[in-house]
Amino acid sequence: MDKLLREEYDAFPETITPYIRHLFQINDRVNERKNRQYANADLIIANSMFSRQTFIDAGFSAKQVVGIPTGCPPVQHGAMANRPQTGPMVFLCAGTQSIRKGIQYLLDAWRKLKPGINAELWLVGKMELPERLLENLPENVIVKPPVSKPELGELFRQSSYLVLPTLCEGLAHIILEAMSAGRGVITTENSGCGDLVEDGVNGWKVPIRNVDALAAKINWCLENPNAQSEIGRNSLKKAAAWQEEDFADTHLAVIKKFLNYEPMTHTGSIN
Q: Which pLDDT does position 31 carry in this prediction?
């Protein structure tokens, strides 16, 4: 992941803030300390299967690392009734608007798609994109400032899909919030969502940096407007089946099994 993000920052050097520069400077020292901590650990619990795989790719034993996805917030009962029935289809991208979140590829996909007045893309949150990416935005790309949690809930009610082509996350919490709000999700495997987002059921996972694949999924949503209600209901079902309490119970069960030296499974999400 370090290499991946460095490649992006090399392409957009103006986005390197003093804080990010500091992180790069101390990266080797921090990783060395983390590696010592991991080496002394008998059990590592990651917050997603994606995170778990990064440990395995780094040489850790698969038996040593367990993935337990973070639980979804309480589902919003009646969320489907608030879905807009008229006007443009709204694709919501909420959170820090940065190159790590893959927003540069989302804008490229939107320009390639040229959806016209039939759709709007809302970029909501702290803006960290370079100015050159924000020049000559289409009229149907709407930039909004950070919002409170109640305001975010209202934005979900006004939108049809969450779209988050992120390059790397442990597990993007905004995806869990979207599912609990009954919204379909277009994201990447690197979001950490795992099987919480199932292709063609409650959303899709596209490869990172793949503008064509991202545009194709957005276009499918536009061409199949009647599908959004079923996709949203499927998100609600998945969110209801994997709540914060389920996460806590599974976390406790894994630790108990480990302390009792019982065989452990390494998956934690529920379809």
A: 78
